[in-house]
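Changelog-adjacent note: as of this version, every example in the card shows the full chain rather than a window. The one below runs 297 residues end to end.
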Amino acid sequence: MGKPAIETLMGSRVAVFGIGGVGGYVVEVLARSGVGALDIIDDDKICMTNINRQIYALISTVGQYKVDVAERRILDINPRCIVRKYRMFYLPETASQFDFTQYDYVVDCIDTVTAKLDIIKKCYALNVPIMSSMGAANKLDPTAFKVADIYKTHMDPLARVMRRELKKLGIPKLKCVYSEEEALRPIDDETISCRFHCICPDKDMRKCTERRDIPASNAFVPPAAGLIIGGEVVKDLINKHQTMRIEPQDAPTNPHAIQAHDRAVKMLEQYKAMTNEKKDTLQPDCPHLKDMIRNQN
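Full-length structure tokens:
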């Protein structure tokens, strides 16, 4: 992709709302691609039932907040990344805590239609790029995912609801990932069902057993959606800034490459300023981080 493309990512700030089966893999792509600042928003604790598909879910992390585990993993991948974590669910009444004008891209990986619509509405009003995940549960075919405008989707029940509601709001487009596979009805076996044998460390931490059907999931469908979204965000950021595949000999005089370099430098300066303030307390469980900060300063 070229150095200017990477510097575009280094100078970018992306918010990911919901870091579960899909969103966790979006964050993984963005962290490993060198995005300079990540805002991660989720109020869930890791449950035993997450282990089959969520990247942060391990036996050793059960009961921990997802944003805390995600922060440690992001900084273990890229210690220079500025991580802002929000241990909360996004709702219209909590929207004031977020300044969407600060985001270069927003990713919506949450399940609640009301919250999805509110995020999309704010991004549309501010002209902030956004990409949404539609349904990934009750599916078996990871190759059935498509990237499309919401109004060109079919076969996805969540997308159908979103199309109707977005039309009411007058929002003419939304980039999303959806599956063309018809959803399957989960097999509910009373001998192993969460409905009758809840294995959450805190029995009241989740309300999934109150649903008519408990969604089914697997290790290969939700992650595939997350990887696709992450890749689209990376490419969209680079293409928007016109820095894809600029040759090294052209970079010194290319205005887009120069701008990308300046943005990356600004983000690094912001990182250094933040770490200087809390050098003694930042990520004590990341043994190499303090040495890296010291060397950079």
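Structural remarks: The chain has one domain: 3-240.
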